[in-house]
Amino acid sequence: MAFAKPFRALAGASFLLFIFILYEIFQPQPVIPLPGKPSKQNSSPQDFRDPQLDPSGEPAEPLWRTSDDYAADNPNSPRINATLLSLVRNSEVNSLIKSMRELETTWNHKFNYPWTFFNDEPFDENFKQKTQAETKAKCNYELIPKEHWDKPAWINDDLFQESVKILDEQNVQYAGKISYHNMCRWNSGMFYKHPALANMQYYWRVEPNVEFYCDVDYDVFRWMSDHNKTYGFNINLYDAPESIPTLWPETEKFMAAHPEYLHPNNARDWLTDKDRRPGHNQKANGYSTCHFWSNFEISALSFWRSQAYEDYFQHLDRAGGFYYERWGDAPVHSVALGLMEDKSKIHW
């Protein structure tokens, strides 16, 4: 049966409208870049090249150079209250010696800053003798209080074990190692409360099996202090989003309750970037998972001792993610710095 011309025209128009609607829905969406960030559509590989490939040189003056005043036994040296800090076990002594030897060779033999070692068990004499033999600087051997290290009482053991099973299924490393969870929690919110650091202004975190390739000829701690820097790092990495799915939602809850802690010159765009690893942002519920790799960090203790950070840590601690998930100190430190510190005080 033939249709009248008006009906054929209407059917044709409807079909064209349907095609137009489909095009509007599924057409590629333009990428709107963040301020100061190149658009993907107009970018080249050069825009996203590894900045570690660039020569860094030395930072801006003033720089404190080595001199006889920095002798280890000089009580009136230019050294500020700062320490090289390491959380380490007796069994890791040989791996730590490797790190110590390289850092002493490239830097600390010139400035003789003290070493402070932390352990949840007493250090044995073998550890003490081997480490002190690597440096002229003073070495301090500290025991972590059980109340700072052990799993807190409000963590439910049954829920923890069930959470471990889920994390294992998602191939999250160290999910079942309670000592790893304890370590992440201690590095996040306990280390700076130890009495051994009470008079310290800065620390440089040193891990076993770390290599230091470059000679550094100035007092790094004095430079951080003179230039009002809070934090220095070596590299940014993306975390496994399966390990921190509720870290960002809990952070948003906290910041909603404490908007006064959000610094006006913050680095929130860096924390929430979803262009480079959109899958990470989605799985981590709004967090890019990009973080300062805290295995190497130089930081002012005043930030971790601040009321803002202490309140934030207490919120996270009560939320349970250090055990029910696998929140690491690196993303926790990074999120806190990115939101609550002036980003100009981070030595990018």
Structure notes:
By secondary structure, the protein is of the alpha/beta class. The protein is 41% helix and 10% strand. It contains 14 helices and nine strands. It has a seven-stranded mixed beta sheet with strand order 3-2-1-4-8-5-9. The termini are far apart. The relative contact order is 0.13.
Layout of helices and strands:
Blueprint: H1 5-26, E1 82-87, H2 93-111, E2 115-119, H3 125-132, E3 139-143, H4 146-149, H5 157-169, H6 178-189, E4 202-205, H7 220-226, E5 231-233, E6 236-238, H8 247-257, H9 268-272, H10 278-283, E7 290-292, E8 297-300, H11 301-305, H12 307-319, H13 321-324, H14 329-340, E9 346-347
Parallel strand pairs: 1-2, 1-4, 2-3, 5-9
Antiparallel strand pairs: 4-8, 5-8, 6-7
Helix pairs in contact: 2-3, 6-14, 8-12
Give the CA-CA distance, first to last residue: 75 Å
Structural category: alpha/beta
Major sheet strand order: 3-2-1-4-8-5-9
Biggest sheet descriptor: 7 strands, mixed
How many helices in DSSP terms? 14
Average pLDDT works out at 89
The run of helices and strands is HEHEHEHHHEHEEHHHEEHHHHE
Short description:
The chain is α/β, with parallel strands linked by helices and 348 residues long. The chain has helices at residues 5-26, 93-111, 125-132, 146-149, 157-169, 178-189, 220-226, 247-257, 268-272, 278-283, 301-305, 307-319, 321-324, 329-340; strands at residues 82-87, 115-119, 139-143, 202-205, 231-233, 236-238, 290-292, 297-300, 346-347. The strands form 2 sheets. A 7-stranded mixed β-sheet has the order 3-2-1-4-8-5-9. Strands 6-7 form a two-stranded antiparallel ribbon.
